[in-house]
Amino acid sequence: MNGAPISHIGGAVTADHGAIGLTRARALAAFYRLEAGRAAEDGARRWADLCTGRAAALDAATRAAALWRRAAGWGDPDAADTV
User: How buried is residue 17: exposed, middle or buried, by Cβ count under 10 Å (0-12/13-18/19+)?
Assistant: First the structure.
């Protein structure tokens, strides 16, 4: 498999373990960015690159899912996760 197994479909962010809400996807991306920084400080370049890639994929999927939700009529894209 090439790249992070993260995408979006129909306003949902999908990851390797299923769909996740936008708020959780943003928090997970923040975790991966933090982990990437720590790995880089420790000299673990491959792990840092992997975490950076997953954070970027989550960010892109979250933005795309939010855009899709707005186009579908949601004024607040995060509100769709509470329905």
Answer: exposed
